[in-house]
């Protein structure tokens, strides 16, 4: 009996140890199964991810790439000559800027001085070329031509302008200083109260109608060289001609302003789409007439034409007119009194290498 009591605890101990061993085996078996399940799940997730990437890549390959957003850095400078219908044309730009999404900026110089100081020239070039928020931009003002390449600028603006018969321009300016115009009729002008006609001014040798006053369109195109502002300078004339041909996109004439606007709309629709219709509609903002202007007599005109200054200024005007008419002949046609823009007259062929 004593021996039996001694052996019983040993059996229980063995059974307990066996049960523990079985439990450990069972737990290890379950852990192994869980590990296998986790591995299968990870492989499945990985296969699914690869399939998704491949499908997305395949879809992207078959789709046309999205074009990058177009960056439009175009800048136009209209260094407008006074009394050449510049306000009429500029107001069209103001009416179009919201619809066509460009900026219009007026260059307002102190006392309307068309010549900038050297430091202002540098500042102006820097502003125009680096002012990203104002691009595309249309700058206008009574400023002499400025060569941007002289200042190391990377992007040169496109210049445009309008010229007018020199005597007609001077007559218009003479009366404008005295009577203003219908654009701002209440504004007091510098010579207001002076009732002397242009004919009377010329016959009496007045300073406001002297031949030197004709010297304006050439220096505006010649630029910021001192010789540009020497009245009657042949060098200035040739420089102005060179700039007109090589630095200006288009130079129109006041007498054919509608043609100028139509050509600009055809060449630069980004800015001038709708300009021709606006001009033809006859809105007051696009028409500006000098008040109480009296045309000069033949005697007055003949007297001014004796001046060498007139001869040189008129030579430049005739040169600009001839160039504009050449451009117009290849840009528009007339039918039944109406002007029409010519259709595109070029295309591409024999393009190599061939695209498979």
TrEMBL record:
Region Disordered, residue ranges: 52-72
The keyword Cell membrane appears for this protein: no
Cellular component GO terms, alphabetical: Golgi membrane
Signal peptide residue numbers: 1-23
Superkingdom, natural source: Eukaryota
A GO term, aspect molecular function: heparan sulfate 2-sulfotransferase activity
Family: Belongs to the sulfotransferase 3 family.
Keyword field contains Coiled coil: yes
Family annotation (Pfam families): Sulfotransfer_2 (PF03567)
SUPFAM superfamilies: P-loop containing nucleoside triphosphate hydrolases (SSF52540)
Coiled coil: 24-51
Annotated compartments: Golgi apparatus membrane
Keywords carried by this UniProt record: Coiled coil, Disulfide bond, Glycoprotein, Golgi apparatus, Membrane, Signal, Signal-anchor, Transferase, Transmembrane, Transmembrane helix
Segments traversing the membrane: none
Bilayer topology: Single-pass type II membrane protein
InterPro entries: Heparan_SO4_2-O-STrfase (IPR007734), P-loop_NTPase (IPR027417), Sulfotransferase (IPR005331)
Protein name: Heparan sulfate 2-O-sulfotransferase 1
């Amino acid at each position: 009996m004593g021996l039996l009591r001694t052996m019983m605890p040993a059996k229980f101990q063995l059974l307990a140890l066996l049960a523990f061993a079985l439990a450990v085996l069972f737990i290890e078996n379950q852990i192994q199964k869980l590990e296998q399940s986790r591995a299968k799940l990870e492989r499945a997730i990985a296969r699914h991810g690869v399939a998704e990437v491949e499908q997305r890549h395949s879809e992207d390959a078959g789709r046309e790439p999205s074009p990058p957003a177009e960056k439009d850095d175009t800048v136009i400078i209209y260094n407008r000559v006074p009394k050449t219908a510049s306000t009429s044309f500029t107001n069209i730009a103001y009416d179009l800027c919201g619809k066509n999404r460009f900026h219009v900026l007026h260059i307002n110089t102190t006392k309307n001085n068309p010549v900038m100081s050297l430091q202002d020239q540098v500042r102006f070039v820097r502003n125009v070329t680096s002012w990203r928020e104002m691009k595309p931009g249309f700058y206008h003002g009574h400023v002499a031509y400025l060569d941007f390449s002289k200042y190391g600028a990377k992007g040169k603006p496109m210049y445009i302008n309008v010229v007018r018969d020199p005597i007609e321009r001077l007559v218009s300016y003479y009366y404008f200083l005295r009577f203003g115009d219908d654009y701002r009729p209440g504004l007091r002008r510098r010579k207001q109260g002076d009732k002397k006609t242009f004919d009377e001014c010329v016959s009496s040798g007045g300073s406001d109608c002297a031949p030197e006053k004709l010297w304006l369109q050439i220096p505006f195109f010649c630029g910021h060289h001192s010789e540009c502002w020497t009245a009657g300078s042949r060098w200035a004339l040739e420089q102005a001609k060179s700039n007109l041909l090589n630095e200006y996109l288009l130079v129109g004439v006041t007498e054919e302003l509608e043609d100028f606007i139509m050509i600009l709309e055809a060449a630069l629709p980004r800015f001038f789409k709708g300009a021709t219709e606006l001009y033809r509609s006859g809105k007051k903002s696009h028409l500006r007439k000098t008040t109480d202007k009296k045309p000069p007599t033949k005697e007055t005109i003949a007297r001014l034409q004796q001046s060498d200054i007139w001869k040189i200024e008129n030579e430049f005007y005739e040169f600009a007119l001839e160039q504009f008419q050449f451009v117009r002949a290849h840009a528009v046609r007339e039918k039944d009194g109406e002007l029409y823009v010519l259709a595109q007259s070029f295309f591409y062929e024999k393009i190599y290498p061939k695209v498979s």
